[in-house]
Write a structure and sequence with these properties.
Blueprint (H helix, E strand, L loop, with lengths): L9 E6 L5 H15 L3 E7 L5 H6 L2 E9 L7 E2 L2 H4 L9 E8 L6 H10 L4 E9 L3 H18 L1
Parallel strand pairs: 1-2, 1-3, 3-5, 5-6
Antiparallel strand pairs: 3-4
Helix pairs in contact: 1-5
This protein binds flavin mononucleotide.
The site of flavin mononucleotide has 21 residues, from helix 1, strand 3 and strand 5.
């Protein structure tokens, strides 16, 4: 990681994960952001969100995994549960998903769902499950850059 920032960004992370990859990506991203002096207010499940962590955060990261027939019909898992989150207006948000072969349009659909909560979506990334280190770092760098410019 390269860049610093004067004041600490507070981020809450919400994740759906069946076999652990998306949770791992969230933990790796959180670790990298912490090294950049960000405060992670909480890491919780989308379906059991830590509301205190959300309330305390400036930025909400929402991650899930890609479900489909691998080459068609891909969609972000549990996308409907995102609409059950509390209204996130006034917060920034970013989305990420992990996949095996091809994410299709999952990231777009996920980004749309996160935007529908009222959050201002600053970006997102689809991460290949076999490159979680590399892609978590790319995601963290993008987030740090985006918030540094904000
Ligand atoms: C039932 C099922 C369907 C899947 N469909 C797709 C798919 O259509 N495209 C793809 O790239 N990966 C697909 N995957 C792979 C997952 O998206 C990938 O392993 C992901 O990292 C799992 O995240 P998790 O470990 O957080 O549950 C599928 C996995 C499962 C279990």
């Amino acid at each position: 990681m390269r860049r610093g920032r004067l004041s600490s960004v507070k981020a809450a992370i919400l994740v759906e994960s069946l076999t652990g990859n998306t949770w791992t990506a969230a933990e790796k991203t959180a670790e990298l952001l912490s090294q950049e002096r960000w405060t992670i207010t909480g890491l919780s499940k989308v379906r059991e969100p830590d509301l205190t962590a959300i309330q305390a955060a400036d930025l909400i990261l929402v991650g899930t995994w890609v479900h489909g027939a691998f080459v068609f019909g891909q969609a972000p898992w549990a996308v409907n549960s995102i609409s059950n989150l509390p209204a996130l207006s006034g917060k920034k948000a970013a989305a990420f998903c992990t996949f095996a072969l091809s994410p299709g349009k999952s990231l777009n659909r996920l980004t749309q769902a996160v935007g529908d909560t009222g959050a201002y979506v600053i970006g997102g990334l689809a991460m290949n499950r076999s490159k979680l280190d590399e892609h978590s770092e790319a995601f963290a760098i993008r987030l740090v850059d985006a918030l540094a410019e904000a």
